[in-house]
Design goal:
This protein has 78 residues and is of the alpha+beta class. The protein is 35% helix and 41% strand.
Length: 78
């Protein structure tokens, strides 16, 4: 099984708050679509940049990419 990391980046003073809110919507989507999430979370990069991310099996890449439009998609090497 190959894993992909889907990342959404948010900028500005409220970036972490927005990233956390986005994560709640991501959880709802994955539950509705019955997509197993291997990891999900947020990360504060600096004062003005935060991300929300989800790691899933690559077989869901097209579904996630088309529906949620992640800013970045990468192989998960963890």
């Amino acid at each position: 099984m190959f894993k992909k990391k889907f990342t959404w980046q948010f900028n500005g003073y409220d970036s972490l708050k927005i990233a956390k809110h986005q994560m709640s919507h991501l959880k709802e989507f994955f539950e509705k679509e019955k997509i197993e999430i291997l990891d999900i979370g947020t990360k504060n990069i600096n004062e003005f940049v935060s991300i929300s991310f989800a790691i899933a099996d690559e077989k869901f890449e097209e579904t996630i990419k088309n529906a949620l439009k992640p800013h970045f998609i990468s192989k998960d090497i963890s």
